[in-house]
Amino acid sequence: MADSKTDTPLPPPTHAQSIASPINLVLFALLLTLVYLRLRPKPPPTLSRAPPPIVFRTFTPPMLKPYNGENNMPVYLAVNGKVFDVSNGRNFYGPGGPYENFAGRDASRGLAYGSFDEDMLTKDLEGPLDDLKGLGGEEWEAMRGWEERFQEKYLVVGKLVAVGDPEASKEG
């Protein structure tokens, strides 16, 4: 074929490359996959079950004793008449922890003296509460420091009263 104006032959037609070449199809599929992964809806997050509500209670020493972390029980301890749920600190206050003697007990005197000994705990759970007589200024300050630390970190779940206290008979 020749151009009618100049009578010069046209170059032979070249074959146009198809857009559907194998490498282009692979790259396109990869692009679609990346776009899908980026834009796909994410599954809604699942929330863990809420812990059971904790009701403020009045405890006596025998009522507090089972809350020592054994048998899947929560870990409670009392400081200066307030009962704290220290279950989040089970590694410290629960079975095998360094403060395990205080679990389920009145820890006031032991924390005041910085002692983990059994003789810092009230032996007679049916008797009167420890009146903390004999504590000096430094011991009172140490105990109040522990009490403040517990109030910042843990929930107050009750108060500790003696066995014969009228408030104890309301709860029992």
List the helices and strands and how they pair.
Blueprint: H1 22-39, E1 57-59, H2 61-64, E2 76-79, E3 82-85, H3 90-93, H4 108-113, H5 137-153, E4 155-160, H6 166-171
Parallel strand pairs: 1-4
Antiparallel strand pairs: 2-3, 3-4
What does this structure look like?
This protein is of the alpha+beta class and 172 residues long. Helices cover 32% and strands 10% of the residues. The protein has helices at 22-39, 61-64, 90-93, 108-113, 137-153, 166-171, and strands spanning 57-59, 76-79, 82-85, 155-160. It has a four-stranded mixed β-sheet with strand order 1-4-3-2. The longest helix has 18 residues, at 22-39. The radius of gyration is 37 Å and the shape is rod-shaped.
Task: Estimate percent helicity.
Answer: 25-40%
Strand order of the largest sheet: 1-4-3-2
Structural class, from helix and strand content? alpha+beta
Please report which band the strand proportion falls in: under 5%, 5-15%, 15-25%, 25-35%, 35-45% or over 45%. 5-15%
Largest sheet: 4 strands, mixed
* Gap between N and C termini: 112 Å
Question: What integer is the average pLDDT?
Answer: 85
Q: Which H/E pattern describes the elements? A: HEHEEHHHEH
- Poorly predicted regions are none
Q: Strand tally, please? A: 4
CA-based gyration radius: 37 Å
Number of helices: 6
Shape: rod-shaped
